[in-house]
Known about the structure:
Order of helices and strands: EEEHEEEH
Number of helices: 2
Number of domains: 1
Helix content: 10-25%
Amino acid sequence: MKPEPEEMELRPSGLFIRWKDGHESLYPYKYLRGACGCAGCVDELTHRRVLDPAKIPDGIQALDYMEVGRYAYQFLWSDAHFTGIYAFDYLRKLCPCSECSR
């Protein structure tokens, strides 16, 4: 079964998702911005990350978002970045909770 959000909210502390299977994820914004997989953040040929995590501002936030199809979110970041698409299955794999990071 593909992961599917039941609820999503931009909170002051990060992106909150309650998944349809009941699991809850809270993604700190800096962590999520650093995981962007767009061509500006990851080299398309080598798949090497070109985004320097040290250059991501500590106070970065997702200011807005839109759903892409029925499979992803795209965020407008406070650093004006907006090209990354975060598929639901990618977001679920990124979950930083202790249960998922084992």
